[in-house]
TrEMBL record:
UniProt keyword terms in alphabetical order: Isomerase, Rotamase, Signal
Annotated protein name in UniProt: PpiC-type peptidyl-prolyl cis-trans isomerase
GO molecular function: peptidyl-prolyl cis-trans isomerase activity
Pfam families attached to this UniProt entry: Rotamase
């Protein structure tokens, strides 16, 4: 039986996947530690300079490898430990070589991960109840592992940035695969979308403004701002701290919030301020050089009561013009789609790991989108339809079924991009391995006796 093509190589590509999952798992582990439970999963099994590897990291890496094996050989515990040690070496060498990641990028990634957790748990409130910690406390715990992940990736990119793949190398790799062992590629599709977000109704805005103005009046009459924030703010993370957002640098907050906060005098309270997050009531506490310290009460609109008339009107008009060939889908998407992650690519959805616009038509696809494509023909567009984004926003979108590649045995012509990615990943893995052999003398490595029989690129770990 032919095997499906595995684009996620067992070791090199799994480093980030395992780390990303561990970033979420670490919160649960820290919660266990906080409760005083000592478990073997938190045993240190290796040290690389000032970085430690827990047994839980090794086990999570192996779980990820099994989930993505797709018929390929699974890594042994020694091979998995080797990859994790390489990652810690990337961190250690990044310190030596002064490779850093800006705080703003780290904070952005922390927020993205928390949004992902909120989606899995249903809401921020559910996260707080599950872990017994505020959103800000959880963000604090996530920040260091996310920082390590991003620094390791930047160091890895520095090592592999000059690596290229030639068409001849791809052909050579393909020709090295026995003809009776060529992998089977499932059906793949290219899909575009034009998205328009629902708008907050005027009535909703007035309702939220009135509530915030009431809170402001209550503070001015003597009530405590932090108590009101704890009771009413829908930013659950800061609400746990009485609305306190701590010190922020210029550019850290959205422009509307920052602009309003910096116009205030210490202890002064703003009028309601609108941003993409909702409506804020802001109190400036103090300034310190280029930093400012503020707290707020946030009220969000009810997404089930959003105004769909604007997106429907716009998309209906665009749908008719695309259907009559007056406008091309790609041009319309670039100009009119409010989903910036796809608009620049003419609306095309892309695989987040490979960057390819060809997506597998299987269970990994959103179920609603999968069922919709089953009713469409290639080259057609859907009528505008209601849509809920990954981060919970209410929207409408038009779907464009651009192309479909039928299931087939891998070929050089049809799958050149996939084969190129595999060859490139292999070359990068080899480059990191060669780098490791040269860099190992610069760092201290020690492993638990249980793993001292393992080797790193042929080097006996016991010797270190």
């Amino acid at each position: 039986m032919k095997k499906a093509l595995n684009l996620k190589l067992p070791y090199f590509s799994l480093i980030r996947t395992a780390l990303s999952t561990l970033v979420l798992v670490c919160v649960a582990l820290s919660g266990t530690q906080a409760q005083g439970k000592s478990t073997s999963v938190n045993k240190v099994i290796a040290r690389v300079d000032n970085y430690y590897i827990l047994r839980s990291e090794l086990e999570e890496y192996l779980i990820q490898a099994r989930s993505q094996a797709q018929g390929q050989p699974l890594p042994t515990a020694c091979q998995a430990l080797e990859r994790l040690i390489v990652n810690k070496m990337l961190l250690a060498k990044a310190e030596i070589d002064s490779v850093i990641v800006e705080d703003k990028l780290i904070d952005s990634q922390v927020s993205s991960r928390m949004d992902y957790m909120a989606k899995r748990f249903g809401s921020e409130k559910n996260i707080v109840e599950a872990y017994g910690k505020s959103i800000e406390a959880l963000k604090y715990e996530l920040r260091e592992p996310i920082k390590q992940e991003m620094v390791a990736e930047k160091m890895q990119s520095k090592i592999t940035e000059a690596i290229k793949v030639t068409p001849n190398e791809v052909r050579k790799f393909f020709n090295s695969i026995p003809k009776d062992s060529l992998p089977y590629i499932p059906a793949e599709v290219e899909i575009g979308q034009i998205v328009r977000y629902a708008k907050v109704t005027k009535a909703q805005k007035e309702e939220l403004r009135a509530r915030l103005l009431d809170y402001k009046a209550r503070v001015e009459k003597g009530e405590d701002f932090s108590s009101l924030a704890s009771a009413y703010s829908e930013d659950l993370g800061s609400a746990q701290q009485g609305g306190d957002l701590g010190f922020a640098k210029r550019g850290d907050m959205v422009a509307e919030f920052e602009g309003a906060a910096l116009k205030l005098k210490p202890n002064e309270i703003s009028e309601p301020v609108e941003s993409d997050f909702g409506l804020h009531l802001i109190q400036l506490l103090e300034t310190r050089g280029a930093e400012y310290h503020a707290r707020h009460i946030l009220l969000r609109p009810d997404y089930n009561r959003m105004d769909m008339s604007e997106p429907k009107h716009v998309l209906d008009s665009l749908y008719n013009m695309i259907k009559t060939d007056t406008l091309k889908f790609e041009k319309v998407a670039k100009t009119w789609s409010e989903d910036k992650s796809t608009a620049d690519a003419g609306g095309l959805l892309k695989d987040q790991q490979t960057g390819s616009s060809r997506l597998p038509l299987d269970a990994s696809m959103d179920y609603g989108l999968y069922m919709m494509l089953d009713t469409m023909k290639v080259g057609t567009i859907s009528a505008p339809m209601n849509y809920r984004t990954d981060d919970g926003k209410t929207a409408m979108r038009i779907i464009y079924y651009k192309s479909r590649v039928e299931p087939h045995t891998a070929s050089l012509k049809e799958d050149f991009e996939k084969l190129t990615n595999i060859v490139l990943a292999n070359k990068k893995t080899q480059a990191v391995d060669e780098w490791f052999k040269k860099a190992i003398a610069d760092v201290f490595i020690k492993v638990d006796p249980e793993y001292q029989g393992c080797k790193m690129m042929g080097i006996d770990l016991e010797a270190n």
